[in-house]
């Protein structure tokens, strides 16, 4: 790492990488989901595209989506309808800015913000607005119900998500992502050991934020056809599709950073190039978990979802914060 | 009841059926007919609703199987004409059953062929609601007091009553159904397709 | 402008309570979970329905009218298509009705084959339910387990009848003689295919194993339980008065099964239980169907162990004319009571054929059961009634 670049050049390159990550990650996770779900269901999954294992299936799908006609309903609120997918994608991309893959302050992260985790949780809400816009502007009752459900659900689960991270912040004493990782590396064990309740709540809330099963009521294809994406086609649909997988990735990265020690692993020097590999392995495990749940569980009902958030997750998270704070002071 | 029942079980079953038919007929004030294992009780149109109220109540025939009609007429547009002249009428049928012994009775009444009309029993058996709507659009029977006697299957603009015998099947008007009299000989008499297994 | 604003203001002052208006939501006729072309016109207040009106008839094919211009053997082809998920089971009550008018009884072996294939149709129909119901609630995986077994059963049906969905296998007075392997001469060698019995026994073991697998996968799932328990409760008396029959009625606690009380097929020779639910909710309807698959496997295993030998066809005239008369024969089909009211005037075809199909009555309870239901429960309730639109519209 002897190459010295000016700050702005480096930032531009890092932003370009972060932007390129979205489609690549979308394809990798999309392919993994296809194959894993297939094998969980005694199927083969993608098989022919690309010659072996159907590895090029998602590339072919991408090409197909781009070729499709971009249909906008006549009654739709056109600018809102057009910008909604972009806004969803914006929130997803902005999240990647604070992902630390290596301890090096220059190369390991796009921007190490002092309020890193705060920024992450705030920016992840931006996609909620995009979803609401999509649902409202489609001029479709199914879309509107889907959008409203999404709004209710995302607001309800934003709270446990935030509260679950507070325990980690208290323990680490910083909100910076790099700081949280180095706190774990320094102490030699991940916060999962003390914050397992927080981790469980964080993962459940993450599933709800991602609107994946068992919390996929905003999409609920057997009820609402396709929820807020019903009217989208072609490239704009692809945006939602990629954003879902990219969101899965970035939320998993945040979970891995907060609870699993990020790029640190006991006994391995984090200053080496193994660090990103370690991080991605942890992220892979979390993504596998999400895919597994997705293909196992049925969907909850809207009221059951709200009950779970308000009556269970939030109180437990608050108790967890109090316990953490008290123990921090006492110990 | 087995594949080859002995004589005694058959007659016992027939006796039980007769007994059931008489019981229903006495309760609803109708005339019982038992044929081919089916109990039919004929009542007067004026006693129709009363009869079904009794079956759903005291008789314990709480299960509504179906309600429909038959168009008895001597001039038919499709199908076979009756061999012997019949009295022109609509026969309204309602099959009700209990939920223990499987006794089923068809309550039947005759409606005037020119302007068939009968009180609705949708408040006695809620399930009759749809059956009556079907009978109304198919036969043109007016069910007085039905909550929503709109068309069930057919488009709202449809005219005519398709299951009436004088309602023609247009495709059959244009070209008679060739399969109606299927006189192809059986294979062993030298006609029809070969008996050889084509795959062999 | 000012006037209207003041007007609005005064109106707002009068009606302190916020006035809301229900939204009309059209579900179907093209919708992922209406099993065909059912349309529901629902008035919803938020997620709760205030009024639901089912609209049917998109698949009305007029079989009752068509039957009046067809001969009896031709009608067997038509009525296969009523409930296409269990085509074979549709044929049996019709041929039994015609046989009763003719005074003919099918030979024992033919009756037993009818019975075995009817139960196979029941298994395949219930397996479709086992596949589609969790899918409607969002769980995609049981679909593949159930459809894999259904394929096994359909293969067996096909090996005997030549058809997977529309067997057209029953004949008045028996079943279609099947050409066993190799060339046949006249009537010798006409029977079920060789190896069928062994394959059936093997398949039943596998179906039973899959039933356990599905039960593990679905019944122990907290989310599935939360979605189905105490949802769409149907009291027995309401169900009966709407004519709801079959597994839906048994789930409401009525142990009524036509196989036990009627003699259209020799079920009296077999040992099987009638599963009965307790609450009449969606969960019970799911459980009753799973249990019925197991009971059907029991019946089939018994039947192939003791298959009597006899010809497959009773003596009937070449061109069949059914003597004048009328009868109603009903059968316990996978979806419920299916029956044919056959009126003959002695011709080549019926004078009138009333088809009583199970799904029609099962569906007619929808306005009652969906009232005040949540939109997500619509799907749970409709799916649990397990209807087929062909069976509704006929």
Overall description:
The complex is a heterotrimer of chains A (331), B (200) and C (394). Chain A has one domain (2-330). Helix content of chain A is 67%, strand content 0%. Chain A contains twelve helices and no strands. The model of chain A has no long low-confidence stretch (mean pLDDT 83). Chain B is of the alpha/beta class and 200 residues long. Chain B is 24% helix and 22% strand. Chain B has four helices and seven strands; from the N terminus they run αββαββββαβα. Chain B has helices at 7-28, 48-56, 128-139, 170-174, and strands at 31-35, 38-42, 63-72, 89-97, 104-111, 117-119, 142-144. In chain B, the strands form two sheets. Chain B has a five-stranded mixed sheet with strand order 1-2-5-4-3, with helices on one face. In chain B, strands 6-7 form a two-stranded parallel ribbon. Chain C has one domain (62-393): Cytochrome-c3 Hydrogenase, chain B, CATH 1.10.645. Chain C has helices at residues 2-14, 63-67, 72-79, 87-102, 108-136, 141-161, 196-219, 222-228, 236-241, 247-251, 258-261, 282-305, 358-364, 366-369, 375-385, 389-393, and strands at residues 23-27, 39-45, 48-55, 170-171, 174-175, 325-333, 336-344, 352-356. The longest helix of chain C is centred in the N-terminal third of the chain and has 29 residues, at 108-136. A three-stranded antiparallel sheet of chain C has the order 1-2-3. The chains are: A mainly alpha (331), B alpha/beta (200), C mainly alpha (394).
């Amino acid at each position: 790492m002897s190459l010295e670049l000016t700050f702005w050049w480096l930032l531009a390159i890092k932003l370009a990488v972060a932007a390129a990550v979205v489609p690549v990650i979308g394809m990798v996770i999309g392919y993994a989901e296809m194959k894993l779900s297939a094998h969980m269901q005694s199927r083969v999954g993608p098989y022919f595209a690309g010659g072996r294992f159907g590895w090029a299936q998602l590339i072919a799908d991408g090409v197909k989506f781009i070729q499709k006609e971009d249909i906008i309903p006549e009654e739709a609120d056109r600018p809102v309808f057009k910008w909604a997918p972009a806004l969803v994608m914006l929130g997803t991309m902005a999240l990647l800015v604070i992902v630390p893959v290596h301890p090096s302050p220059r190369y390991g992260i796009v921007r190490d913000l002092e309020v890193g985790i705060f920024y992450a949780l705030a920016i992840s809400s931006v996609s909620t607005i995009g979803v609401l816009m999509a649902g409202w502007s489609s001029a479709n009752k199914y879309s509107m119900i889907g959008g409203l459900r999404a709004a209710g659900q995302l607001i309800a689960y934003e709270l446990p998500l935030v509260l679950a991270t507070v325990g980690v912040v208290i323990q680490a004493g910083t909100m910076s992502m790099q700081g949280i990782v180095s706190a774990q590396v320094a102490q030699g064990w991940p916060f999962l050991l003390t914050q397992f309740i927080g981790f469980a709540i964080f993962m459940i809330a993450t599933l709800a934020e991602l609107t994946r099963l068992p919390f996929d009521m905003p999409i609920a294809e057997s009820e609402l056809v396709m929820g807020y994406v019903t009217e989208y086609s072609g490239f704009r649909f692809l945006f939602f599709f990629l954003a879902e997988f990219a969101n899965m990735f970035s939320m998993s990265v945040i979970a891995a950073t907060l609870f699993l020690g990020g790029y640190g692993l006991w006994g391995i020097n984090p200053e080496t190039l193994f660090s990103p590999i370690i991080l991605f392995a942890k992220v892979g495990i979390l993504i596998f978990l999400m895919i597994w749940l997705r293909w196992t569980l049925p969907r909850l009902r809207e009221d059951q979802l709200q009950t779970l958030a308000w009556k269970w997750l939030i109180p437990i998270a608050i108790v967890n914060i109090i316990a953490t704070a008290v123990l921090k002071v006492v110990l | 009841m087995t594949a080859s029942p002995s004589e005694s079980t058959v007659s016992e079953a027939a006796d039980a059926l007769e007994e059931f038919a008489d019981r229903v007929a006495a309760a609803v004030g109708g005339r019982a007919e038992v044929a081919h294992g089916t109990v039919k009780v004929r009542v007067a149109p004026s006693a129709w609703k009363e009869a079904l109220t009794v079956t759903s109540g005291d008789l314990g025939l709480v299960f509504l199987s179906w309600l429909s009609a038959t168009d008895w007429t001597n001039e038919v547009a499709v199908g076979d004409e009756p061999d012997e002249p019949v009295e022109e009428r609509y026969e309204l049928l309602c099959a009700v059953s209990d939920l223990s012994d499987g006794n089923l009775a068809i309550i039947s009444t005759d409606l005037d062929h020119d302007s068939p009309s009968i009180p609705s029993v949708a408040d006695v058996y809620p399930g009759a609601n749809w059956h009556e709507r079907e009978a109304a659009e198919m036969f043109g029977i007016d069910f007085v007091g039905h909550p929503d006697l709109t068309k069930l299957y057919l488009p709202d603009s449809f005219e005519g009553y398709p299951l009436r015998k004088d309602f023609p099947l247009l495709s059959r008007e244009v070209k008679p159904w060739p399969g109606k009299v299927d006189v192809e000989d059986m294979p062993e008499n030298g006609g029809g397709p070969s008996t050889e297994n084509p795959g062999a | 402008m000012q006037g209207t604003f003041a007007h609005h203001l005064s109106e707002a002052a009068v009606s302190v309570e916020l006035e809301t208006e229900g939204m009309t939501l059209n579900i179907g006729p093209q919708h992922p979970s209406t099993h065909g072309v059912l349309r529901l016109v629902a008035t919803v207040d938020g997620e709760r329905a205030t009024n639901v009106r089912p609209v049917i008839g998109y698949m009305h094919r007029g079989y009752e009218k068509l039957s009046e211009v067809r001969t009896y053997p031709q009608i067997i082809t038509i009525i296969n298509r009523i409930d296409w998920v269990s085509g074979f089971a549709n044929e049996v009550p019709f041929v039994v009705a015609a046989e009763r008018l003719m005074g003919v009884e099918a030979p024992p072996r033919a009756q037993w084959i009818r019975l075995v294939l009817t139960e196979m149709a029941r298994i395949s129909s219930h397996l479709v339910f086992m596949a589609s119901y969790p899918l409607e609630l969002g769980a995609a995986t049981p679909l593949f387990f159930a459809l894999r077994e259904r394929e096994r059963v359909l293969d067996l049906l096909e090996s005997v009848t030549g058809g997977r969905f529309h067997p057209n296998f029953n004949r008045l007075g028996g079943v279609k003689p099947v050409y066993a392997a190799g060339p046949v001469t006249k009537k010798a060698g006409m029977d079920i295919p060789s190896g069928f019995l062994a394959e059936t026994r093997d398949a039943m073991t596998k179906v039973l194993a899959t039933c356990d697998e599905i039960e593990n996968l679905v019944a122990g799932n907290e989310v599935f339980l939360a979605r189905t328990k105490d949802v769409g409760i149907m009291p027995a008396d309401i169900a009966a008065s709407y004519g709801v029959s079959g597994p839906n009625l048994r789930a409401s606690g009525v142990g009524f099964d036509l196989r036990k009380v009627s003699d259209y097929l020799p079920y009296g020779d077999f040992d099987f239980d009638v599963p009965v639910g307790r609450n009449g909710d969606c969960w019970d309807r799911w459980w009753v169907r799973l249990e019925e698959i197991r009971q059907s496997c029991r019946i089939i295993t018994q039947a192939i162990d003791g298959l009597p030998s006899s010809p497959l066809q009773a003596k009937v005239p070449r061109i069949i004319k059914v003597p004048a008369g009328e009868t109603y024969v009903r059968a316990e089909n996978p979806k419920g009571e299916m029956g044919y009211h056959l009126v003959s005037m002695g011709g080549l075809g019926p004078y009138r054929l009333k088809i009583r199909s199970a799904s029609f009555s099962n569906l007619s309870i929808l306005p009652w059961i969906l009232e005040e239901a949540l939109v997500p429960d619509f799907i749970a309730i409709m799916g649990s009634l397990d209807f087929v639109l062909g069976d509704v519209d006929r």
